[in-house]
UniProtKB/TrEMBL annotation:
Protein name in the entry: DUF1868 domain-containing protein
Xref: SUPFAM superfamilies: LigT-like
Domain DUF1868, chain residue ranges per copy: 36-101
Alphabetized Pfam families for the sequence: 2H-phosphodiest (PF08975)
Length: 258
């Protein structure tokens, strides 16, 4: 599914154009992952960068995203936007399985977790053998995007950084055992860091005001000389909800660069 580098740039740039915010804001919906401002059970697995609280390379980057997140929260209508804990900020490399698909898989096969953990470990080892020397990957901020249920900062890898990400995704999604576990690619890659989710989207919200807040905040975001996001490690993580991403020490992990 994932296209070439130019396909990626064309697609994701469109998602961050202020001229598209009006239509995006029309489509916002309350996220089912939160109820009354609290994250509800939403279990699954994904391949992500270490969450902010465990990060070492992107502290300044995440610090500024937290400022942007606070500004959006304060300026949007009350109870509309629910920020995620900044300590949970991360970049998703590959979605694997979640929600009812995951709970049903575990019911059908109580050993599901162990099988998935083992297979991802094999894939990561294969990837490391095929790509023994990869520099730290770099991604630059493109701007804010309004998803139907969330607001995120979208990122663009450099061309040299894009291909290693896509190669990993191909190894995962084309793996026969992964497919047998019921996991399939459902989305093209979109490098993004979620700032928060829509909580209570009332029928009478002032959507023009929402759009203006997003436009203004995006202007501030892209005018800053932000450091690039350094992707130096990705890991298999299990999540219990959209704020809690955990892993055991022996689960698959890859470090790139120095």
């Amino acid at each position: 599914m994932d296209g070439n580098y130019q396909d990626y740039i064309n697609r994701v740039v469109q998602m961050t154009l202020p001229s598209n915010y009006k239509q995006q804001v029309k489509n916002i919906q309350s996220s089912p992952k939160f109820v009354d401002g609290k994250a509800i059970d939403f279990p699954g697995f994904s391949v992500i960068t270490p969450p902010e609280k465990e990060e070492t390379n992107n502290k300044k980057f995440y610090s500024y995203l937290q400022e942007i997140q606070t500004q959006i929260t304060q300026e949007l209508p009350e109870n509309l936007f629910l920020p995620v804990p900044p300590q949970s900020f991360h970049l998703t490399i590959a979605d694997l399985i979640w929600d009812t698909s995951y709970t049903n898989a575990v019911k059908e096969n109580p050993d599901f977790d162990n099988l998935l953990i083992s297979e991802i470990d094999k894939i990561f080892k294969e990837y490391a053998q095929l790509n023994p020397e990869i520099d730290t990957l770099e991604l630059e901020v493109l701007g804010l995007s309004v998803f139907p249920r969330a607001i995120a900062v979208c990122l663009a890898p450099t061309e040299d950084s894009y291909n290693p990400i896509i190669k990993l995704r191909q190894l995962i999604y084309q793996n026969e055992q992964i497919i047998k576990l019921g996991i399939e690619q459902q989305y093209d890659f979109v490098g993004h860091i979620t700032l928060g989710y829509f909580d209570k989207v009332e029928d009478n919200i002032d959507r023009e005001q929402v759009e203006l807040v997003i436009v203004k905040t995006n202007e501030q975001l892209v005018s800053k000389n932000l450091p690039t996001f350094e992707l130096s490690q990705w890991e298999l993580r299990k999540f219990t909800d959209m704020t809690n991403f955990i892993r055991e020490q022996n689960w698959a992990s890859i470090k790139v660069g120095n």
